[in-house]
Every structure is written in structure tokens, then in C-alpha cells.
TrEMBL record:
It is a multi-pass membrane protein. It is found in: Cell membrane. It comes from the Bacteria. PANTHER family: ABC TRANSPORTER ATP-BINDING PROTEIN, HIGH-AFFINITY BRANCHED-CHAIN AMINO ACID TRANSPORT SYSTEM PERMEASE. Pfam families: BPD_transp_2 (PF02653). Its main location: membrane. This is Branched-chain amino acid ABC transporter permease.
Length: 320
């Protein structure tokens, strides 16, 4: 992982047009799907958008701060079970679901981050992985709430007249969340907080010598990232109307890390593009072979060799 530059690079014009065209296509997709009578594509792209949100959340710590978290599935699991448990007890209010997801995710991120950030390198990776696995096995042990079979959701999240149980409503809501998150990531990247965070990634000892409380900055970033990942779990639960322990498994954390690296670690747009590329490759290969996992591996290796800075990071001009 190469050290990021702290200057403010200009976004190439073609990259701006690429983003505009992608956004326009996403806005028009549900309309086209309705006329073509192919609702499957709305569900598929909603899933892509949800994982783009989760990958962008991970990038806040992995790409901006150099913290290799292998436990972000913990927060996705918390977000999913926030909806499921509220629904189980007859609460369909989306604001309650959202508050539950954010508060519990923030508390979990603060507690686990305070422990993990006392270490570096492999130890940090293993501690974040261990906390995610602890939550995974905790959920499995709760037989009253489905155990390893998961928990069906009878009521989606309703925010007044906005009901996320409706596929089109969920689609545009997720698209809006991703757009706001990307804008917020761009602002954070160039803000004082982002500069300090990236400085910690380059040389934390020097940043500490300059008087910055580096651990505090990193913990705040970790909590912020965990909260956003929790929101992605809430959206995923509304998509599947189901909460599964598998949402908190280490494989989900691994997939998110692949998406970030595939798109471009430390870039603003990269994780979203990486999530789309990874999941679209997976979906296409599933249609042709039962051994799609091997095909995904080959494609990732090829992209890694041909685009070492990721799909977005390897574009001319290295757009952020």
C-alpha cells in the first residue's frame, strides 16, 4: 500500500463525466426495469449499492487511516439485527431501527476500537476479526432469535410515508445514502481531520511528535466507519427481509476488503466502483458455472496485476 499524497489533486474531466454518467444510469435504472418488466435488476443493483456503502465505510479506516480492519462485518450484523429485533418485538418505526443501529454500532466500535488501537499490524487485524467472530457466535447461540437459522423480518423500516420494504423506495434511499457518503468522504479527505488521519497512515510517530492526539483521531474515524457500516446492515436487512448470522462472518469482512482494494485504497470513489465490479463479476460467473469462486479469484488476480492501484486509482491522473 503506497503512502498517499497530502496535496489536493484535481479530478480529471473524464473522471467527472464517468461519475455523472454512472449516477444518471443509476437514477434511471428502476424506470427502465419497470418498462422492461425486469424487477430483478433493481434488487441486484440495490445489493451493489448497499455493499458500496459498506466498502466506503471500511475505506474511511483502511484507505484514509491505514487501519486494516478485518471485523467490519460486526457492524453490518449489528445493523441487520437492529431491524430484525425491533421487528420481532413489533416495532416498525424506521427511526427506532436507525437509532438502534447507530447507537449500538457506535458503542461496539468505541469498545472494540479502544482495544484494537492499542496494537498495530497483524495484531490489529486479528483483534478486529476476533470481535466480529465473537458477535457471530453470540448470535448463533441466541436460539430464541433464530440462532444459526437467522431471524425473518416481518416489518421493514418505515420512516413516515417512506417504507423501505418497497424495493424502489429502498433502491433510491440506498442510492441517496451512498451519494451523501461519497460527498462526505470527499470533504473529510481534504479536511483537517482527513489530513491528520492520512498523516498517521504515513508516519504516526511524526504526527504524534507534532502534537496530534493520533489515537483519538483514529478512534473517531473507527467509530464513524462502524456507524456507517451499521447503516449498510440496516439497508441489507430491508433488502432481504431477513437477518442472518452470516452477515457478521469473517468472509463478509474479507469481501469488503477486496472491494476496497479492487476499487482503489484511499480513493473516494474507488470502494464504490470496487464493490460494483466485484459483485457484478460474481453475478455473471454464477450464470455460467458452479465453480464461480475460482473465476472470481482469477479475475481479481488479473485486475491486481494490471491495475495495481485499483480500478479507480489506476485511471490517468489518479483521480480521488
Amino acid at each position: 500500500m503506497s503512502a498517499p499524497s497530502l496535496n489536493r489533486p484535481a479530478l480529471p474531466a473524464f473522471a467527472v463525466w464517468l461519475v455523472v454518467l454512472a449516477a444518471a444510469a443509476l437514477v434511471l435504472l428502476p424506470i427502465a426495469a419497470r418498462y422492461a418488466e425486469t424487477p430483478y435488476y433493481v434488487v441486484l443493483v440495490t445489493r451493489l449499492l448497499i455493499f458500496a456503502v459498506a466498502a466506503t465505510a471500511l475505506n474511511l479506516v483502511l484507505g484514509f487511516g491505514g487501519m486494516v480492519s478485518f471485523g467490519h462485518s460486526l457492524f453490518m450484523g449489528i445493523g441487520a439485527y437492529s431491524v430484525a429485533l425491533c421487528s420481532y418485538f413489533g416495532i416498525g418505526n424506521g427511526w427506532a431501527h436507525l437509532a438502534f443501529a447507530i447507537v449500538v454500532s457506535a458503542f461496539a466500535a468505541m469498545a472494540t476500537g479502544a482495544v484494537a488501537l492499542r496494537t498495530r499490524g497483524v495484531a490489529f487485524i486479528m483483534i478486529t476479526l476476533a470481535f466480529a467472530q465473537m458477535f457471530y457466535f453470540l448470535v448463533i447461540s441466541l436460539k430464541e432469535f433464530g440462532g444459526d437459522d437467522g431471524l425473518p423480518i416481518s416489518m421493514g423500516s418505515r420512516f413516515g410515508f417512506v417504507d423501505l420494504k418497497n424495493p424502489t423506495t429502498l433502491y433510491y434511499t440506498t442510492f441517496g445514502v451512498l451519494a451523501l457518503l461519497i460527498y462526505g468522504s470527499y470533504r473529510l479527505y481534504h479536511a483537517r481531520f482527513g489530513l491528520v488521519l492520512r498523516g498517521c497512515m504515513i508516519n504516526e510517530d511524526r504526527m504524534r511528535a507534532l502534537g496530534f492526539p493520533t489515537t483519538t483521531y483514529k478512534l473517531v474515524a473507527y467509530v464513524l466507519s462502524g456507524c456507517v457500516a451499521g447503516i449498510s446492515g440496516l439497508l441489507l436487512a430491508n433488502l432481504t427481509m431477513f437477518a442472518s448470522p452470516s452477515y457478521a462472518s469473517w468472509t463478509v469482512s474479507g469481501d469488503l476488503m477486496i472491494m476496497v482494494v479492487l476499487g482503489g485504497t484511499g480513493t473516494v470513489m474507488g470502494p464504490a466502483f470496487g464493490a460494483f465490479a466485484f459483485l457484478l463479476i460474481e453475478d455473471l460467473l454464477k450464470r455460467f458455472t458452479d465453480h464461480w469462486i475460482g473465476g472470481v479469484g482469477v479475475m481479481i488476480v488479473l485486475i491486481g496485476l494490471l491495475a495495481r492501484r485499483g480500478l479507480w486509482g489506476s485511471l490517468p491522473g489518479r483521480p480521488r
